[in-house]
């Protein structure tokens, strides 16, 4: 059986730094980000199911979310001011992402390609599931801005405002409840969250 380079490429997700044009107190890589997005997407799906009569498969959504940025092992993480500079650049970059995704799928053993295609192209997801993953992606970027601002890095002030506005524009019950339940703790220190968790 022919060797596959797929996982050797995926392992390089940890070498790709996010927010490349901004000064970071803590440098975040794509692998860390992808895990966080998967965890938040899973939580959003659970919130939707338990509080708002949803019928989502939280485990499927979490798995697909883990793969949402894998094309960046071939393309790198293009900074948002470049990626979204105008509609033409945005569309061309999407084409590049699709080519990169297809190259990764073709690296998988032939018997597994269809399975990885569903994860990497996200073809197995319907519109509602795609929204959950996108919302989780934006929430994680928002949490990053909170962490940087909490550490005194004003570089992320405008990014926080932009992402805050974007989350409000979703008008999503599950997003709003996630923000209410989990986000306030990000303004606290480790001692503060530990004392609150274990105080009697």
Defining key terms:
Hypothetical protein af1432; 200 residues; single chain; mainly alpha; 64% helix
Brief synopsis:
Helix content is 64%, strand content 0%. It has 200 residues and is an all-alpha fold. It has a single domain (6-198), classed as Hypothetical protein af1432 (Orthogonal Bundle), CATH 1.10.3210.10.
The count of domains is: 1
Radius of gyration: 18 Å
Task: Tell me the major beta sheet.
Answer: none
The count of β-strands is 0
CATH class: Mainly Alpha
CATH architectural label: Orthogonal Bundle
Continuous helix count? 11
Describe the structure.
- By secondary structure, the protein is mostly helical.
- The chain has a single domain, classed as Orthogonal Bundle (Hypothetical protein af1432).
- It contains eleven helices and no strands.
- α3 packs across α8 (about 125-150) and α8 (about 125-150) packs antiparallel against α9.
Topology:
Layout: H1 6-10, H2 30-51, H3 58-66, H4 72-75, H5 80-83, H6 87-107, H7 113-120, H8 127-150, H9 157-169, H10 173-182, H11 190-198
Helix pairs in contact: 2-3, 2-8, 2-10, 3-8, 6-7, 8-9
């Amino acid at each position: 059986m022919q060797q596959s380079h797929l996982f050797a490429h995926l392992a390089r997700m940890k070498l790709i730094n996010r927010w490349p044009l901004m000064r970071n107190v803590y440098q975040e890589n794509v692998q860390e980000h992808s895990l966080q997005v998967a965890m938040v997407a899973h939580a959003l799906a659970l919130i939707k199911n338990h509080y708002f009569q949803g019928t989502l498969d939280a485990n499927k959504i979490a798995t697909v979310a883990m793969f949402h940025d894998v094309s960046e092992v071939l393309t790198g993480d293009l900074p948002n001011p470049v990626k979204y500079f105008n509609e033409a650049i945005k569309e061309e970059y999407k084409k590049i992402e699709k080519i990169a995704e297809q190259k990764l799928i073709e690296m998988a053993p032939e018997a597994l390609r269809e399975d990885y295609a569903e994860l990497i192209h996200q073809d197995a997801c319907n519109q509602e599931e795609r929204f959950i993953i996108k919302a989780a992606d934006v929430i994680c970027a928002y949490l990053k801005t909170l962490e940087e601002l909490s550490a005194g890095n004003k570089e992320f002030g405008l990014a926080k405002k932009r992402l805050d506005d974007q989350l409000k524009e979703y008008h999503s019950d599950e997003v709003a409840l996630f923000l209410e339940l989990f986000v306030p703790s990000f303004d606290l220190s480790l001692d503060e969250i530990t004392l609150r968790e274990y105080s009697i």
